[in-house]
Amino acid sequence: MSCPPVPAVLLVDGYNIIGAWSCLKKTRDTAGLEAARRELVETMTSYSSFQGYETKIVFDAHYQNTASNQEVITELLSIHYTDFGQTADSYIEKTCASLRYEFLQSKMARLIVATSDRAQQLTVQGYGAEWLSAEQLCGEVKTTICLVKQRAKPRQHSPRRLASSIDPKAKQKLVELRMGLK
């Protein structure tokens, strides 16, 4: 029995998104790059969970002489730090190339890359991936947050119900009749 395909694999160019979203730029400029990364990860954790996307946020080694590593945040979200000298773009391109076979075999429904880098857009589309600009991703995240809030709201009683349309005196009489008081 085959497993159902993953709805999507979403590859996010972390620093590109941080530099494009005004809220993350503000966090970066006031609290530092680490705080902006945490905020992006928290946002994408919620988004990925709601959408059911397997999300990989990719950060450049950012001039640090460190080996690549990966942090698994949730079942659906992981963070990938590139090797020293490797860009997030090249990491994303290699990942698209390696996932292309799975994509073509329908083991995943969609392969999406989120970045505003126009050269990256053309490259990943050549691998069959969809492209989302940073602004488009921001819009999708905001829409998702609204949907989550809407679903979490308690249902309000409709003013068209009988109980809300009778005067208080009649309500009291009905209560007394129901309780067998008169």
| SSE run | EHHHEEEHEHEHHH
Amount of beta strand: 5-15%
What oligomeric arrangement do these chains adopt? single chain
Can you summarize the main beta sheet?
Answer: 6 strands, mixed
Q: Can you tell me the number of structural domains?
A: 1
Mean pLDDT: 84
Q: Going across the biggest sheet, name each strand in turn.
A: 3-4-2-1-5-6
What shape does the CA trace take? elongated
Pick out the low-confidence regions: none
Number of strands: 6
Helical segment count: 8
- Cα(first) to Cα(last) distance is 66 Å
Q: What radius of gyration results from the CA coordinates?
A: 24 Å
Q: Which structural class do you get from the secondary structure elements?
A: alpha/beta
Helix content: 40-55%
Model description:
- With 182 residues, the protein is an alpha/beta fold.
- It has one domain.
- It contains eight helices and six strands, in the order E-H-H-H-E-E-E-H-E-H-E-H-H-H.
- Strands 3-4-2-1-5-6 form a six-stranded mixed β-sheet.
- The radius of gyration is 24 Å and the shape is elongated.
- The protein starts with 8 loop residues before the first strand and ends with a helix.
